[in-house]
Amino acid sequence: MPKCLNILFASSEAVPFIKTGGLADVSGSLPKALSHLGLAVSVIIPAYREVLASVVDAKVVSQFSVFGFGKIYYVKLIEARVPIPSTSLTFWFIDIPELFDRPHGIYLAEDGKDWWDNGERFAIFSKAVTEVAMNRVKLDWKADVVAYRDWE
Fold it and tell me: 3-state DSSP call for residue 148?
């Protein structure tokens, strides 16, 4: 029997954790559907303040750093399993508090305008996702397919 593909869905938002629009619906439902087909699917999103407040039974599974924009960012990779019947979804959260622990919204500041550093935030998120996907964070797991959504 052939090896099951490891599929990693990277997104800036995903149901059931955080939603501002249709992106979260797709990033939550498509992995679930693929998991029902027997594929090994993981979803990775930023660890926003709202996300960390809603996650139960989560644990830090890796700590690593990424370099970008003249700075080293320290990352905690948090894992939570979501009990969805007939699926085996793993959710990972990229925890970089200085980029994602912010009030008011995941994309917009209190004044209703984009966070001034959204480009940097999601570029660093993408670098962290790459480290996870390439098995460079000591998880003994490597993605065969990576599907990026929206901001990445």
Answer: strand
- Scored b (16 or more CB within 10 A) or e, 30-69 reads bbbebbeeebbbbbbbbbbebbbeebeebeebbeeebeee
Distances (CA, A) of 62 to 26, 77, 116, 137: 27, 5, 29, 6
Neighbours of 5 (CB within 10 A): 13
**Helix (H) or strand (E) segment spanning residue 147:** strand 145-148
Question: Residue 42's closest CA among 99, 82, 69, 96?
Answer: 82
As a whole number, mean pLDDT of residues 67-73 equals 97
CB 132 within 8 A of CB 92: yes
Average pLDDT over residues 100-126: 92
pLDDT of residue 104: 80
Write out the H or E segment, with its range, that includes residue 81: strand 71-81
- Residue 76 to residue 74: CA distance in whole angstroms: 7
Contacts of residue 83, Cβ cutoff 8 Å, sequence gap at least 6: none
Please tell me the pTM assigned to this model.
0.90
